[in-house]
Amino acid sequence: MMSPHRGGQPFSSADEYHLILERDRMSEPTPPRDRQRLLRLLMQFVGGVSLLAFGAAVMPERWIIEISQELGFDPFPDSPLTFYLARHLSLLYGFVGVFFLILANDLDRYLPLVRLLAIATTIFGVGQACVDALAGVPAWWTWGESLSTVFGGLLLGWFVRRSR
Predict the structure, then answer these.
(1) Residue 127's pLDDT band (boundaries 50, 70, 90)?
(2) Per DSSP, which regions of 49-162 are E strands?
(3) What is the DSSP letter of 147?
(4) H or E element that contains 40
(5) 38-42 long-range Cβ contacts below 8 angstroms, 24+ apart
(6) What predicted TM-score, i.e. pTM, was given to this entire model?
(7) Residues 78-98: pLDDT tens digits?
(8) Dihedrals φ, ψ of 9, to 5°?
């Protein structure tokens, strides 16, 4: 019985043959289905975390003020407009989470929409940085908020391109 060949040369042992097979298997690119599974997990994670914002939409005003002070911001303005804006932004983030979860549930159908979402998320992150700079929030807030959003948008886009 002839032994398998590598480049015209016989393998010196079965172990060498199996090592080469394993190396070749490990160097294969991740199949699109696996990358789509990772995309789904990323979207479910972001969606799930964003759902937590619904809690902030209904939390007592006292908690909003205390959290603001704990984060090192100037005292939270005790104004109906300020609470209105804070609560509505929380509702918006919560519904973004719902949207992410719906899209993640059927990526075969919604992949083109997720591609647009990735672009929009990246642009939104840049917009956040501009708004944060105008608002005068601390640098750590701007970097944490806008960089994570830009990174998330780029990561979404990367997974979408490799999930086709």
Answers:
(1) very high
(2) none
(3) I
(4) helix 32-51
(5) 38/159, 39/104, 39/107, 39/114, 39/156, 39/159, 39/160, 39/163, 40/104, 40/107, 42/155, 42/156, 42/159
(6) 0.75
(7) 899 999 999 999 999 999 999
(8) -105, 135
